[in-house]
Amino acid sequence: MRRILALAALFALPGFAHADPLPSWNDGDAKAAIVEFVESVTDAAADTYVTPADRIAVFDNDGTLWAEQPVYFQFLYALDKLKEMAAADPSILTSDLLKSAAAGDMKAIAASGTEGMLEIAMVSHSGMATDDFKASVRSWLDTARHPETGMAYDRMIYQPMLELLAYLRDEDFRTFIVSGGGIDFIRVFSQEAYNIPPDQVIGTSGNARYEVADGTPAIMKDPGIFFIDDKEGKPVAIESRLGKRPILAAGNSDGDFQMLEWTTAGDGPRLGLIVHHTDAEREFAYDRDGAVGKLARGLDEAGTRGWLLVDMQDDWATVWPGSR
């Protein structure tokens, strides 16, 4: 017991150097602002103290926790799955777009816009049980590689954001993913990649139904979208799932604008954080003209709204886990 008390006293000494909770963040305004915020809401003697029950942090996924270029990774899965399905049954290619997608014609896909991407996703994601879908995603993640980096997709996660998630949890925050991506897709890897359990994932969901076939019950994925968790949908989904407003929200695009706006409009200390992709050498550089992850309004208004704009090139010493 004396040894424990002695160690406790040592750690309480003024000037004692505690371990850096964000070692992959360069020392600067962004890192300092994060640490200051966390310390302010966890200091029980401060007027800014927030009880652990209300320490909720929400994070976008694509472009915030893992990369999203050249297109969302879930869409790349959808293309590969469509090609696999078409090889077994060409009759599923019922439109010119689906035929172009199965042939790998990215120009035709890009020209089809959001509606075209949804058509491809509906065909490739429906008609199977959720368990089978998750197994398919897991197999794809184990074998598929990014066309430019050659990395596994679930290894293209951001080391600085992993540290931020861990830091927050160490300080009794609950961390949630709130993504425009598919909820079933993200739940496959969220625990392993981010230490965020599946029940703390909020995302876009498709139509589904309960079915018992040959005595085996299953949840079947049907065509169509049940809820799109993007833009105005993000605050609605958070309120529906959690019943309270977060005190920290992190995103990277204008699809996250309303989530940050709603979060930081609450009473007491709040932090809105935007990851700005400025590092073409180590990752990708894009904002206003991005084909995905477009950041314009957020870039223009971050300063006046008091949101923290994190410059990937300047603020991150490391991008990928295990890199320098």
Q: Which keywords apply here?
A:
single chain, alpha/beta, 2 domains
Report on this structure.
By secondary structure, the chain is α/β, with parallel strands linked by helices. The protein folds into 2 domains: 20-70 and 155-315, 3-Layer(aba) Sandwich (Rossmann fold); 73-143. It contains 13 helices and 8 strands. It has helices at residues 2-12, 29-42, 73-88, 96-102, 106-125, 130-143, 159-170, 183-187, 190-194, 233-242, 257-264, 297-305, 312-315, and strands at 56-59, 128-129, 174-182, 201-213, 216-227, 248-251, 271-276, 308-311. It has an 8-stranded mixed β-sheet, with helices on both faces. Helix 11 links the parallel strand 6 (248-251) and strand 7 (271-276). Residues 1-16 have low confidence and may be disordered.
Helix content: 40-55%
Q: Please report the first level of CATH classification, the CATH class of the largest domain.
A: Alpha Beta
The CATH fourth-level homologous superfamily of the largest domain:
HAD superfamily/HAD-like
Mean pLDDT across all residues, rounded?
92
Question: Order of strands side by side in the largest beta sheet?
Answer: 2-5-4-3-1-6-7-8
User: What are the segments in which pLDDT stays under 50 over at least 5 consecutive residues?
Assistant: 1-16
- Tally of helical runs: 13
Q: Give the percentage of residues in beta strands.
A: 15-25%
End-to-end Cα distance, whole Å, is: 41 Å
- The helix/strand order is HHEHHHEHHEHHEEHEHEHEH
Q: Examine the secondary-structure arrangement and name the CATH architecture of the largest domain.
A: 3-Layer(aba) Sandwich
* Radius of gyration from the alpha-carbon trace, in angstroms: 21 Å
How many domains make up the coordinates?
2
- Structural class by helix and strand composition: alpha/beta
Might you state the CATH topology name of the largest domain? Rossmann fold
- Shape category: globular
Number of E strands: 8
Q: Give the biggest beta sheet.
A: 8 strands, mixed
